[in-house]
Structures are given as C-alpha cells and as structure tokens.
C-alpha cells in the first residue's frame, strides 16, 4: 500500500467522522503505507451547474468543468488521481451525505464523461481501491444508509 488519501467529509470539526478518518490513516501507516487526511470542509466546492460543459469530448482534465478554475474541487480530485488507495469517512445527515461532499461527488461527473470518451488522461490511470466508512448518529432506521448507497 503506497499512498492513501483519506477524505474526512463532515462539516463538523472533531466529530466521529474526523476520528474515523484519523483511525483509517493510522491503519494505513501501521500497514507500512503513507496516508494524508483531507478535510473536505476546508475546500471551497461549488455545486454542479448541470451546464453540460463536461460533455464535450475535446475538453480534458481541469478544463473539462466550467467551474474547474473557480474553486478547489480539482485540488481534492488531484488526490484521487494520484493516491493508490482512497478512503472516505462521512457522517449521514438526514439519510444522506453532507452537502459539500455531495457537491464534490456531483462535480465528479466530468471523470465519468472522460472515461466514457476513453480520454487517455483518465483511461490510462491504474486501477485503485476506494472504501467508505459511513457513520450515523441515529441508532435505528431501516433505510438509514439507502441515500448514499
């Protein structure tokens, strides 16, 4: 296990998701790898505009999204593109993911489109693993994890 990017996705500092992210990073380090914890709340991520800009096959990389140069979503994506392992620790708020994390996920549409068009900058990346740890404060609820699933 080389380098792992651990994304702490809660808006709240010092909560269970931050603690889970630190435990994940510690596990990677104990296994002989390197881990970096990134708090999504510290990055400005604008919501997808559904403008269709990312649909054009001639656009690549950061230029694929019209919002790419205006916020820090790409700074987070860069870690996904370079890390061997990607780990997410996120709370569940009202049966779904926190808004900034969800906005960042939506902005990932550009990567799905790039893979669809077999763009070399994305298609040539090695396969990697990603895992999620979802934390809920509510002790029960038969559909508690259906929203982010």
Task: Explain this structure.
By secondary structure, this protein is of the alpha/beta class. It has a single domain (3-135), classed as Rossmann fold. Helix content is 31%, strand content 17%. It has five helices and four strands, in the order βαβαβαααβ. The chain has helices at 16-30, 73-82, 99-107, 109-116, 120-123, and strands at 3-8, 34-39, 85-91, 129-135. The protein has a four-stranded parallel beta sheet with strand order 2-1-3-4, sandwiched between helices. Strand 1 (3-8), helix 1 (16-30) and strand 2 form a beta-alpha-beta unit. The longest helix has 15 residues, at 16-30. The chain is globular, with a radius of gyration of 16 Å.
Quickly list its features:
Flavodoxin family protein; 149 residues; 4-stranded parallel beta sheet; alpha/beta; 5 helices; flavoprotein; Rossmann fold
From the helix content, strand content and strand pairing, which structural class follows?
Answer: alpha/beta
Uncertain regions: pLDDT < 50 for 5+ in a row?
none
Main sheet specs: 4 strands, parallel
The overall strand count is 4
Distance N to C terminus: 26 Å
Overall mean pLDDT score? 87
Spatial strand order of the main sheet = 2-1-3-4
Helix content range: 25-40%
Series of H and E elements = EHEHEHHHE
CATH level 1 name: Alpha Beta
Tell me the domain tally. Answer: 1
How large is the radius of gyration?
16 Å
Number of helices: 5
Strand content: 15-25%
Choose one word for the global shape.
globular
CATH superfamily: Flavodoxin domain
| CATH architect. name | 3-Layer(aba) Sandwich
* CATH topology title: Rossmann fold
Protein name: Flavodoxin family protein
Keywords: Flavoprotein, FMN
Domain NADPH-dependent FMN reductase-like: 5-109
